[in-house]
Specification:
- The chain is an alpha+beta fold.
- It has three helices and six strands.
- A hairpin with a 4-residue loop joins strand 4 and strand 5.
- It is elongated.
- 18% of the residues are buried.
- This is Signal peptidase complex catalytic subunit SEC11.
- Pfam families: Peptidase_S24.
């Protein structure tokens, strides 16, 4: 009888290790799949960030804080009235604003863009880097082609309260690792 209990314990221990490794592999596949989807979206849209969250009220009433924007760079030149997302040199957070002026140079091969938030009084020259009066093509991350209202508030809350973000990631990882369906 003691031998049977010992063998059963060893078998359960082997099964637990196999189950844990299977679940760890499943977690790795989930993360890898998410990265593959993101990279695929980057290729399809031509944008380094195909999805962004509006972080301020500068575009109200067009877009509100927490709206998710879907971006596409496209081949067509940028035109006045389009909403673009741009990133300035030396800054981490992109800005969502509307194009108010486009200046084409050298037969349309180079463009200069001036932007403004719909809810702002003046243009964005005060936001641009010192000595910069226009945005250039390399600053533009993409143009807005669609949006989901308020869905991005989750992202804003996670950034405002980083411990909540880490707790949520930990709980989700723990759920995947302790899942009995593997």
């Amino acid at each position: 009888m003691m031998e049977f209990i010992t063998e059963t314990y060893k078998e359960l221990k082997r099964m637990n290790v196999r189950q844990f490794l299977g679940q760890a592999l499943q977690l790795g596949l989930i993360v890898t799949s998410a990265l593959m989807i993101w990279k695929s979206l980057m290729l399809v849209t031509g944008s380094e960030s195909p999805v962004v969250v509006v972080l301020s009220g500068s575009m109200e009433p067009g877009f509100y804080r927490g709206d998710i924007l879907f971006l596409n760079m496209g081949k067509a030149p940028i035109r006045t009235g389009e909403v673009v997302v741009f990133n300035l040199d030396g800054r981490d957070i992109p800005i969502v604003h509307r194009v108010i002026k486009v200046h084409e140079r050298r037969n349309g091969t180079h463009i200069d863009v001036l932007t403004k938030g719909d809810n702002n009084f003046g243009d964005d020259r005060a936001l641009y880097n010192k000595g910069q009066d226009w945005l250039h093509q390399h600053h533009i991350m993409g143009r807005a082609v669609g949006f989901l209202p308020k869905v991005g508030m989750v992202t804003i809350i996670m950034n405002d309260y980083p411990y909540l973000k880490y707790a949520l990631i930990g709980v989700l990882g723990l759920l995947v690792l302790t899942n009995k369906d593997a």
